[in-house]
Amino acid sequence: QVQLVESGGGLVQAGDSLRLSCAASGRTFNTYAMGWFRQGPGREREFVAAITWNGGSPVYADFVKGRFTISRDKEKNTVFLQMDSLKPEDTAVYSCAAGLGLRITTTLAYSKWGQGTQVTVSS
Q1: Rounded CA separation 59/75 (Å)
Q2: Higher-confidence residue: 65 or 83?
Q3: Which DSSP letter does residue 95 get?
Q4: Long-range contacts of 65-71 (CB under 8 A, 24+ apart)
Q5: What residues are paired with 46 via a beta bridge?
Q6: pLDDT by residue (tens digit) across 72-115?
Q7: DSSP letter for each residue of 12-28
Q8: Fewest 10 Å CB contacts: which of 29, 31, 40, 67?
Q9: 116: number of CA atoms within 13 Å, CB side?
């Protein structure tokens, strides 16, 4: 099955930007969508953004408010999350996921997860 590896996290100040990457390898030909989720300390995992693999149609959580942009490079089997105007409340472990389901704003759509990358935003 597909293997996912995230990168690009780090410690930044409020207002800064980060670009997360999720590199996929293995059997990706049946993947319908790639998604980004995040989980802060003591909080449940929440949806951030997703994109359909073939069509490249993006979907965003309401709290993104135009600050984040998801994209994918189909040739390189990589999905990106450009995060601008970061806020302290964006601090979390960000994980990417691949799946076949149609409800791509929920975890139900995804069957494979990466290990996550830490994003910390200071005031």
Answers
A1: 21
A2: 83
A3: E
A4: 70/36
A5: 38
A6: 998 999 999 999 999 999 999 999 999 988 899 999 999 999 99
A7: EETT--EEEEEEEESS-
A8: 29
A9: 12
